[in-house]
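--- STAGE predict ---
source: upstream dedup step, 1 unique chain passed
mode: sequence only
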Amino acid sequence: MECIFCQIVAGKIPSAKVFEDDQAIAFLSIRPIQPGHTIVTLKEHFQTLLEVPLPQLQYLVGVVQKLSSAVKKGAKADGFIISMNNGRDAGQEIDHAHFHILPRFKGDGLVPWKEGQYKEGEMIKYADQIKKVL
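--- STAGE serialize ---
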């Protein structure tokens, strides 16, 4: 079955589009975390960030930057969060790589994640593990 974002791109499912060109599309989320919550994605299907070729990713980030200003102003927000979940265990529900632009409002109470703390020596261990696979 074709993914829901590919169906939106093809015009098979209606959406509240805020941007569209030959490579990318942006529309309001049907399950918004905040009013103005916008989804930005490439029209071409890639499952996660790791699959998106660098030229397309650079283009998409440029679109996200442009739309972030519009979402902030249009939603009369005080700020915004850019989010991208990659993989089911990271909260990705639609298997089509996409960014979320989440307007933020003073006192909105939204807490996107809980901060943690490293145990003694863990920070260096994780830094070393990451550097080894670069």
